Amino acid sequence: MSKELQVAALENGTAIDHIPPEHLFKVAQLIGLDKTENRITIGNNLESKKMGRKGVIKIADKFFEKDEINRIALVAPNVVLNIIRDYEVVEKKFVSLPDELVGVVKCNNPKCISNNEPMDSRFYVIDRGMGTIKCRYCERKINKEDIKIVNNA
Question: How far is CA 70 from the centre of its chain?
Answer without folding.
Answer: 6
